[in-house]
Design brief:
This is HtrA2 peptidase. The chain has helices spanning 9-14, 40-101, 106-113, 132-137, 167-170, 321-334, 353-358, 375-379, 398-405, and strands spanning 117-129, 142-156, 162-165, 186-191, 194-200, 202-207, 212-216, 238-243, 253-264, 276-279, 291-293, 299-306, 316-320, 341-342, 345-347, 365-370, 386-390, 393-394, 413-420, 423-430, 432-433. It has 9 helices and 21 strands. It is globular and about 65 Å long. Strands 5-4-1-2-3-7-6 form a 7-stranded antiparallel beta sheet. The protein has a 6-stranded antiparallel beta barrel with strand order 8-9-10-13-12-11. It starts with 8 loop residues before the first helix and ends with a strand. Helices cover 27% and strands 30% of the residues.
Length: 436
């Protein structure tokens, strides 16, 4: 066996046997000496000496070259292992600390909040006329048809039976003129713990402008939801929607997402007067009136609107709970939203800037109706007028007017600029309180 030194390898093969003061090399081909063969003892001595020299060279090489490399590799492996162990320990520690200090898990949140979410079924009587034969033979009398029903969600806000929901969930059961239940209509509430025995609910108050309503059932010791602070939410936070998508068949469904945006304004919706919370947690028909919950199991919003259009996906909205409770508390105490200003007009949403340009008319709010004896009526605003400015500010929608109204109080007088019969008029409107 021969050890190859990289620095002298070529010389070794060129000059296999030579001697210097510092180096000694041996050739495997030893020429026979001319003298007589040595004896057995001499041969043994020679072999022993040669073996000793070779062994010494190998051992020396090991300690000089191989051993340091092996030790270095071992040290690197040991350092790497220690590093991994340290990383694992650190990661586990961080995970444990995170688990101990984090908010409740989604499962815990669902178990905590779900009992406070109810199912609401609205049944409205429906009628139809007899067929042509009935009209002749039975004097055209109307026959009752299977009642139609709508289903939604609600949130228990007081343990003695007060429930918050969306106004559109119960609107079909209400007579728009009297504000009372239609004859034969009923609103039923289903609790998660007793979903086979409905409670008959009474309407406490409703507000179509903000799409909020309060109903009440005759029950005690109900699990009222814990309310959070919607003013403190941030984009990216956990958002959990709990409700009944598709109706009572899927009662208590839980979907998870994040807060996608805050202070959103959605044109064409009834939730006027404040901005909405946007979330990508799935909100489907039946979820309306249900809860949007944060990571602490607190209600931060009331699920209300979902944009369903081509090109949009996972775009849901909720009414901030802080604003909702202002409306709800007023409905409970006064049966209407106290301090709200009434103008008394209905705007035509089909009148857009494009339509205005097409007919060479000014952009603004086209008045399609004026409520009798309202602030607008008393000021002289009439059906067919186009409101171009409200309180000196150009307006293009009823929402624009409502936003300006929020800056005023009952009794304030504001100027309203209208366009009528190719003439611009400025009227003074005294803002009155709405008790509807």
């Amino acid at each position: 066996m021969t050890y190859n030194d990289n620095n002298n390898n070529n010389e070794l093969y060129k000059n296999p046997t030579y001697h210097t003061a510092d180096n000694t090399y041996f050739n495997e081909n030893i020429s026979k000496p001319k003298s007589k063969k040595p004896g057995l003892l001499s041969q043994m001595i020679i072999v022993s000496v040669v073996s000793s020299i070779i062994s010494g060279a190998l051992v020396g090489s090991y300690f000089q070259l191989i051993s340091p490399a092996v030790n270095s590799a071992n040290k690197q492996e040991q350092t790497s292992t220690q590093s991994i162990q340290s990383y694992d320990s650190s990661s586990k520690a961080k995970m444990i600390l995170a688990a101990e200090s984090s908010d409740s898990s989604i499962t815990d949140i669902a178990e905590k909040v779900s009992p406070s979410i109810v199912g609401i079924r609205v049944t409205v009587p429906s009628t139809r006329k007899n067929n042509i034969f009935g009209n002749y033979f039975f004097n055209g009398q109307e026959q009752s048809q299977t009642p139609k029903a709508g289903e939604g969600s609600g949130i228990i806000i007081k343990n003695d039976g007060y429930i918050m929901t969306n106004d559109h969930v119960i609107a079909d059961a209400i007579n728009s003129k009297t504000g009372k239940l239609i004859d034969g209509a009923k609103i039923e509430v289903y609790l998660s713990s007793k979903n086979d025995v409905p409670y008959t609910a009474q309407v406490v108050g409703r507000d179509s402008l903000t799409d909020l309503a309060v109903i009440k059932i005759d029950a005690k010791n109900l699990p009222a939801a814990k309310l959070g602070n919607s003013d403190n939410i941030k984009v990216g936070e956990l958002a959990i929607a709990i409700g009944n998508p598709g109706g009572l068949e899927y009662m208590g469904s839980v979907t998870v997402g994040v807060i996608s945006g805050i202070n959103r304004k959605v044109e064409g919706t009834e939730t006027t007067g404040f901005k909405l919370i946007q979330t990508d947690a799935a909100i489907n028909p039946g979820n309306s009136g249900g809860a949007l919950v944060n990571s602490r199991g607190e209600i931060i919003g009331i699920n209300s609107v979902k944009i369903v259009a081509q090109g949009f996906e996972s775009l849901g909205f909720a009414i901030p709970v802080n604003k909702a409770m202002e409306i709800v508390n007023s409905l409970i105490q006064y049966k209407y939203v106290k301090g709200r200003i009434q103008l008394g007009i209905t705007g035509d949403i089909n009148y857009t800037e494009e339509i205005a340009k097409q007919y060479d008319m000014p952009a603004g709010v086209y008045v399609s109706d004026v409520q009798m004896f309202s602030s607008a009526y008393k000021a002289g605003i009439r059906k067919g007028d186009i409101i171009t400015k409200f309180d000196g500010v150009s307006v293009k929608s009823v929402n624009d007017i409502n936003d300006i109204k929020l800056k005023h109080k009952v009794g304030d007088v504001v100027s309203v600029e209208i366009y009528r019969d190719n003439e611009t008029l400025t009227l003074k409107v005294t803002l009155a309180e709405s008790k509807n």
